[in-house]
Specification:
globular; five-stranded parallel beta sheet; two-stranded antiparallel ribbon; alpha/beta; 38% helix; single chain
Length: 266
């Protein structure tokens, strides 16, 4: 059973309703006036994690992305941005029309920061928190408009992994505002490198079952309003099988270094 807190009421709502086995997700982006940025990518990331969590709980899902009427270049930039952050492509991408069947029947509506939407829409509503770059010289943060086409460079200097951005965003509850700082990104990169090396080393050892209590805690955290930060905390002290299992939701490519390390010494 998955439960999501509806922004309008603050109450946890079971999804999908009526004992169905298909979860319908509609992700909404706001009007884009100064370029595609991190503030726009976070909502598709939340939708991606929700779809992955549904799959982990034995549910099928379909995700629809609604956007403003974007010219070809920004539309392609958004597609590239989602790809570098490991976000599964939505089943449909369409211009805002909430009355259309594809979103009118959604179980969950994920709204990017700054999106205006009708209060009368059905289903659970998730308002995603703002993403801002660190303010220069103590100034006021901007709205997170780092160009999507530059995401690999803007977020991952010196060619390092843009999935560090995904990890940074996943470390915060989806409704919580996030300020992207160099220090936070450096720490996310460091942890990714450390975890991937651990997974690569453990892959050379005999496999063991995931501890039952860890499995229960992970399922419970994800089922309770997508508690991904708690799942990340569970990886501290975990082993190969737990990392591989939870990465189905985290999408951090934690097994990337398996097979690339030196053979373990006897």
């Amino acid at each position: 059973m998955l439960r999501i807190a509806d922004t309008r009421t603050g109450r946890l709502v079971e999804i999908p309703s009526a004992h169905r086995h298909l979860l319908r997700i509609c992700v909404h982006l706001p009007v884009i006036d100064t370029g595609i940025g991190a503030v726009h990518v976070r909502a598709p990331l939340v939708g991606d994690v929700l779809a992955r969590t549904a799959e982990l709980h034995g549910l099928q899902s379909v995700t629809v992305l609604t956007t403003p009427d974007l010219p070809p270049e920004p539309a392609q930039g958004l597609e590239r941005a989602m790809a570098v952050l490991g976000i599964h492509p939505p089943a449909t991408v369409g211009v805002h029309h909430l009355t259309e069947t594809m979103c009118a029947a959604a179980d969950v509506h994920v709204l990017a920061y700054g999106t205006a939407v009708q209060d009368a829409i059905g289903g659970v509503r998730i308002d995603v928190g703002q993403v801002s770059p660190a303010p220069p010289d103590g100034g006021v943060p901007g709205r997170g408009h780092l160009l999507a086409s530059d995401l690999p460079d803007a977020f991952a200097r010196e060619g390092t992994d843009p999935l560090a951005v995904r990890m940074l965003l996943l470390g915060h509850a989806h409704s919580t505002p996030v300020t992207v700082t160099s220090a936070a990104l450096d720490e996310a990169r460091r942890m990714l490198r450390h975890w991937r090396q651990q997974v690569a080393d453990w892959a050379q050892e005999p496999s063991r079952p995931i501890p039952a209590d860890v499995l229960r805690q992970a399922h419970a955290a994800l089922a309770d309003d997508l508690g991904v930060p708690a799942v990340l905390d569970m990886l501290v002290g975990a082993k190969f099988e737990t990392f591989a299992f939870l990465d189905r939701v985290l999408g951090l490519d934690l097994a990337r270094e398996v097979g690339h390390q030196h053979p373990a010494r006897p």
